[in-house]
Every structure is written in structure tokens, then in C-alpha cells.
Amino acid sequence: MTQALRHDAMRARNLALVLAAVGARESVTRAALAEMTGLTKTTVSKLVGDLIEGGLVVETGAVRDGERGRPGVEIRISGQHVAALGLEVNVDYLAVCVVDLARTVRLRRTQAVDNRAAPPVDVIARLGDLASAVVDEAVENGLRVVGGVLAVPGPVDMTSGVVHNAPNLGWRDVPLASLLRFPFPVRVENEANLAALGELWFGSGLPDFLHVSGEIGIGAGLVVRGRLFRGAHGFAGELGHVVVSPDGPPCRCGGRGCLEQYAGQDALLTAARAAASVRPAPVPPAAAPGNPPGGMPPREDAGKAGETDKSRETRTSEETGTSGEPREPSSSPEMLLPAQQGVAWVLSRLQEGDADARAACERAAWALGVALSSAVNLVDPDAIVLGGIYAPLFPWIGHMVADTLKDRLGQMRGAVPPVVVSRLGAEAAALGAAGQVIEQVMADPAALLHT
Amino acid sequence: MTQALRHDAMRARNLALVLAAVGARESVTRAALAEMTGLTKTTVSKLVGDLIEGGLVVETGAVRDGERGRPGVEIRISGQHVAALGLEVNVDYLAVCVVDLARTVRLRRTQAVDNRAAPPVDVIARLGDLASAVVDEAVENGLRVVGGVLAVPGPVDMTSGVVHNAPNLGWRDVPLASLLRFPFPVRVENEANLAALGELWFGSGLPDFLHVSGEIGIGAGLVVRGRLFRGAHGFAGELGHVVVSPDGPPCRCGGRGCLEQYAGQDALLTAARAAASVRPAPVPPAAAPGNPPGGMPPREDAGKAGETDKSRETRTSEETGTSGEPREPSSSPEMLLPAQQGVAWVLSRLQEGDADARAACERAAWALGVALSSAVNLVDPDAIVLGGIYAPLFPWIGHMVADTLKDRLGQMRGAVPPVVVSRLGAEAAALGAAGQVIEQVMADPAALLHT
Ligand SMILES: [Zn+2]
Ligand SMILES: [Zn+2]
């Protein structure tokens, strides 16, 4: 290693060290940073100067007594310059959001659209329009979007950006990375992984959990001590294809009796409709996650998730409006997309006390409990967070999932992981995507600064 | 942080840095160490002096041209002083081994004994005698045993050393750590975790794999990029209780249809005997792992595991004899322990072409394939290594496990992880236990040196 290279590497490492120390507190003085990092005050002052110049940290102007020695100016992460773009393509919606370096959600848009009907290039073009609009608005607000991550519902080769197989979208070997046109790098990652990271950074605040993304497919993301577990090839967390019953219904993965065949959105809907007539039921607006449906959930304690209230604060700290694009295809009940109609329809049936809907949820919850008992035995999570469609369904399924887990695990394990609801619902993946860009900036700020 | 504390912390970190650099190569000069670590030659010389004094590294005496500048003395990890003790209690045997800092296995002993019959305190006393004998012999050879790890077949609270539940031993809340009496620290850990680490350090040399320990219970250890995945509470890898069929036979864990009920040693034996008469069959000596049984395995390629040949070299580099204690209880066929008799008996039946034994293996292999397909979906390992009783059974079950995995995973995943055999067999856990002590010394050599 040459002297110059060694110097650059050390500067990059020290910049990250100082930025992490700033991020670890609400605000901090240069003297405290020297204490925290073990660097000299002179070095810290130089590095803080570089970070201020790059717009990553900001002096608050507030002056107070330093813990040691003379008063110092407080420094904090700047939310005014650097920002990240989160994007998601899912089966029945597109989502984008902009998050600033202080982790405040600045902008978000979702668009209901059936992406199974369109070729990938059209889906990406539509997503690009949605994203360009929020990026333009971010720029008007003085933000500089430095990178993005795109969430897709299927395993992704993270080095090439190729989506090998997103069966619910009908995508196979789609070179997604090469279809994206942005003036900043955009990586592609699995939706379930990013939803778990969204839950970590913008949701419950738990450091160890398995997050379950219920959509048409079912993915999971395992977070261990604040880090996502990806497996050897980045394909971990395919909970939807964990075996519930080895001779059960055939699955699109080639297996039989996978969880998706019992608890995926389509399976749930089919089961709920099995005995019901096909007459269109009145469809209320889809219940927002965090606003449990008005009907009587089967248990008083079913909505237990008080510890996830922080996610509401994150949302209300948003500086710009949350009004999305007009949801053209869903402007009237008749025009609802099949999937949306599905969950809303199931919810309305549950609220009416419909026995078939209840039975379908019981079956799905039992299957979730069986698959999750295998997951707990294998990966030992500290908690289970139910997200996606399971968030609005939580009052009906949560306690049944927990009961099945207790039946199957309680005897050998002292404590069975609690089953809680995600308050982020369908937004989790896009938020996790943006959060991942923020993480990357925090880990290597030198890459953003002119060296 | 005071100046003195800061200096000690930096010295400890630099000692570990230099020791790791020495360990990364066969041998290395001080000049090369300065290059590799970024430390000055003066600092490196001081640290190497401390490591030599502590017996952790040694000058080989060989002198050759340095890569840069003048010739230097080569330094390597010393195998002559510091050593580690590995211990294992399993259902039907005890095992101990001594491994030196250069990772050479110096001593090993196993003792066949039915530990289900004895209270924990007696089992530990017997293990203590076995261990004291090898520690004494190690001391006679000039070694200093600095620590030990004990493998037990069940989840362990690693902070307290309490074994909550080892159902196959009949142990519940046993304060194992407090029963151990050694003049050095001995920690307790799950057998399946340690067997995976044994495979990592002394077996295949693969960096990413799921190691399956088939015993009366079935555990698994997941290694990702050379590190063991433990889960939130250290209870990950309970493959034996992954659901194969949700309404299958009841399991001691409280669940139903767990893998252990289809592929555990007792289940396999019961199935193999189901239709066979109870007359005692002639029992050959248990086939050593690595020496496939003489009979005709069903496929020519079934024994594929050429890449694990390194483990043989590790074994042959042993300096002291491998002769164990006399296996009193198993000195004659009639006296074989039930479990040993079981696998040996199944092997002999397979070699004779017995249809019932074949069918029992088919059922076990199918169940292993089903449970492993769930595991691959959840944790995405790069390879699957079958150890414990599955090592001698591999020629009969390996291809069937692989076929079931391919059927269930092949359509969605580009590559299904290969299924290979462990060459360590029942020794894996004790070797992993000793290896873990070595890892700890490498990570924090300062703790061993007089500061
Ligand atoms: Zn499937
Ligand atoms: Zn079980």
C-alpha cells in the first residue's frame, strides 16, 4: 500500500467513524467526538469541516457547556442536503419515497396498478415517471438525491441486478438494473429483505426479528442485531415456500404444500370465496395499517402492538404532504384491482361475521403458525412482525398464529417469540430501500465527498 | 478513556492484528507483517517479541530474501505451547481432544457409554476423568491448555452455562458450567453448532454451508462466510423440529411431524425393524466415517465428497496416537449400546440388501429432503454437509436427499445446494469445541499474555 493510498483509506475510515458518532446521538460537540472516536481534536475538527462542507452534518448554532473543557458548538446529521430514493414494484402497486440523511421521510407516492398485465419495460417506465416527480420535488426542496434502491418481489442477483424469477409478476431473468435511468446509482433488492429493513429503521425499533411480508407471495426478512441476514446468495427468507404439508397443493415453485398455498393473498381469497356466492359485496376503503378495522376482532388483546407506535411519529414528522397520485384504477369500488379488492373484501366479510372468511383466515393463520414454527426452530428470532396484508388482517389472525407457535414450540423453548403487527404495511419495502442508501452514505461518506 | 487504557486497548488490538496476519500465511517476515498490518516495523517487532515470549508464535530459523529490502527471519504460529481442550457429551458417547494453536489435533479419546442412564453429575465426573487424562498427557508434551469448550446435544444459555433442555439426555435446566472443575475456563455450547465449526475448521474447508448432525436428535449449524449463525438467543439450527408433516407423529418437543420423528436415529431404527424379526443380527464394528461400508451403495456417485479430503490430512498430522480408552461396554457385539447397535445394525442390513432397512432409509432421506427444502428457502446455504449418523449412511441416503431437494427447489432456484458427506462424523463437535478456544486466543491474544 502506498503512503497516499494508506492516507486516503485512513481518512475514509475516520470520516465514517466521526459520522457514525454524530449519528449515534441527537447532537454532539467536537470535543465529545474526540472522546468517542479516540481521534485527536485537530483531526476531528478537520473531518467535521469536510462533513459540513459536504452537507452531511450541520452546526446547530446552539452552544452549551462541553462535558470536558470549554463550551462547544453542537453538531448533528443534516437533513437539508443529502437524500435517498426508495422504490418498489409489487404485483398490484408501485411506491416511491424520499428520505433525508436524518432519516425523516420527506416525500412518498404510491400508485395502484396491476403490474402482472404489463411487460417489465413498461412497468419500469411508469415507475420512472413516478420517481422523477418526487426527485424533482426533492430538488426543489434543496435536497440532493444521491442514490436509490428498488424493491422487487423475488430473488435478485445483487451483483448483476438481474431478477431471476418474480413468479407473481411473471418476470424471469429480467435485467432490471439496466432498465433504470437515473442520474444516480440505483440498486435492486428483494422486497421482503427491504421491508424488514424498513421495519428496523422506520417501524418497531426492535433489533432482532423476523418480518413477514404477506402479499400474493410471502417473503420474510430476518434482522439479527440490527443487520439483515441474507444467506449465501442473498436468497434467504423465502418463507412462502417453507413446507406446511409435504403432499399439499402444488406450488409455482415446483414444490407442494408450501405456505403460499395456504396463506398467500390469492389462496386466502380463494378459500374465503369457496362457499360464498360470487355476488359483488360492497367494498369499503381498504383499512389503513395502524387503523384496525371497525368490526369486532375475535379477541380484545389481538391488536397488541403498542411498542410499534414510534412508526407513527416517524410518519407525522414528514415535512411534505402524503397525498399520492390519484389512484385512477381504484377510483370506484367496481374498479378495484383484484388483489386490493381481495383484502378489502375479506376484511368486510370478517367485519360482517362471515363464517367462510373466518375459516379462511383460520386456515391461513394455522399454516403461518406451522411454517413459522419451522422458522423459529431454524433461525431463532426474538420476535415475529406480521406485515403486508397481514397488518390489516392482524386482529383476526395474530392470536391464532401465536397460539399455533405456542402449541408447537412452548414445551422445548422457555419463551416463544411474540407475534406483533407491522404499522408500516405496504410502505415498508420502499422505506427500507431508501434507508439502505442512507446506511451506505453513513458507512462510506468519503465516496460522496470530493477527495 | 484514559491514556493508559487507550494504550492497552490499542496494544491488544495490534497484537490480534499481527497474530491474525501470521496465521493468514504459512510463515511470514516482520517486514511483510508491517506491510500487511499498516503498522511500523518497530511496532511490529515489539509485538512479535511479546507473542514469541508468550509462546504464540515462533521463529522458524529459516532465513530468506524479504520481498522488500533485507532478508528476514520467518515467523509462524507456534504449535508447541498453547493448546485447547474440546469436550463432548452425547447420548451414547463422550469425546475429548486437544488441539494446538497451529490447529493440529494432538490428542483424542472417545468412550462409548449410555449417558441416558446416569445423572448429569456422574456423566460430568466421567468426562472429567477422560479430560484430565488427555490434559496431563498434553502437559507432558510441553503444551499449556488455556481453555475448553464442552459440546452438549441441546440448547445452551451461553451466558450462564445452563442447559435448558437436552431431551435426548433427559436433562432439564442443568447448571453444567458449575459442575466442571478445570484449572482453566470451560464454556458450554450446543453440539450442532460446534459440529458445524468443526467441519469449518477441520473438515471440508467450505466457507458457507449448513451442517446436519444426525444423532438421536438432529441439529444443524449454519456457517455463513466462515462464521456460525446463532440466532437471537443462540438456539438457531433446531432442524430436528422443523415440520415435515403437520399432523405426523407427536414429538418430544410438543409439536407433531417433526423431522426427528422420521430421520432421527431412533425413528430410523424403529422403521427399519418394523417388519424385521427381532432376532439379534450379527453386528460388524461400526463403520468409521470416511470408510464407506463395503456393501454396494445404490449409486456409483453416491460417495461424492472428494473436496473433504483435507480432513484426512488433519487427522494424519496428529502427533500422538488415536487409541482411545478401552470401550468397555462395547467389547463384544452383545454389549453394544442401543444407538451404536442401531446404526451398525442398519448398515449391516443395508449391506445385505434388506428391503425394510432400505425403506426406512428412503423415508428418512425423503423427510430430510423436505425439511432441508424449508431450510434452504429460509437460510439459503451454499452447501449441505451431512454428518453424525448420516456420514456412514451417506452412500444410501445422500442421493435421495439431493433428489428431494431438486424436486422441491429446482424450478425457482438456479442452483440447488449440493449435498455432501462430512468426513469428521462423531468427532466434529469436540474438534469444533477445541477450535473455538483457538479462535478466541487468536482474537484476543493479549488476554493470555502478561500485560
Ligand atoms: Zn412453493
Ligand atoms: Zn419436535
TrEMBL record, chains A, B:
Listed Low complexity bias regions: 319-334
Domain of life: Bacteria
Pfam families: MarR_2, ROK
Composition bias, Pro residues: 281-296
Positions with biased composition (Basic and acidic residues): 298-318
Domain HTH marR-type, residue spans: 17-66
Region (Disordered) residue spans: 280-334
The family this protein is said to belong to: Belongs to the ROK (NagC/XylR) family.
PANTHER family from the UniProt entry: BIFUNCTIONAL UDP-N-ACETYLGLUCOSAMINE 2-EPIMERASE_N-ACETYLMANNOSAMINE KINASE, ROK (REPRESSOR, ORF, KINASE) FAMILY
Protein name: ROK family transcriptional regulator
Organism: Microbispora hainanensis
Organism lineage string: Bacteria, Bacillati, Actinomycetota, Actinomycetes, Streptosporangiales
